[in-house]
Write a structure and sequence with these properties.
The chain has 102 residues and is of the alpha+beta class. The protein has a single domain, classed as 2-Layer Sandwich (Alpha-Beta Plaits). The chain has three helices and four strands. Strands 2-3-1-4 form a four-stranded antiparallel sheet. The radius of gyration is 14 Å and the shape is globular.
């Protein structure tokens, strides 16, 4: 199992239209057939601590059964369309990919 986590910092984090457009784009990404499971979220209202980063606008989390499934996702037309249509909304994107330990 491979986990793919993506964090987005919007250029205009208070702009509701930007929030809606990114959320809709992320929801469409979740329809890609090689995704085993996935979710979209925003920073939780947890305690502010030095080790907690609440600065991002959206978090996107997906799981893939195989590395090949992830590779198909990366070049899938829906993913490419998402980047093309939404990249103007963010000022930063950070990706964390990891494989689950047995």
């Amino acid at each position: 199992m491979l986990t793919h986590q993506v964090y987005f910092w919007l250029k205009e984090p208070q702009n509701q239209e930007s929030q809606i457009q990114l959320k809709e784009g992320l929801e469409k990404l979740l329809t890609i057939e090689t995704i085993h499971s996935g979710s979209i979220g925003v920073p939780a209202a947890t305690e502010a601590r030095e080790v907690v980063d609440h600065s991002y606008s959206f978090a996107y989390h997906t799981n893939f059964e195989t590395l090949q499934d992830h590779e198909v996702y990366q070049t899938h037309p829906i993913h490419l369309e998402f980047v093309e249509n939404c990249q103007h909304l963010w000022e930063r994107v950070q990706v964390y990919d990891f494989s689950l330990l047995d």
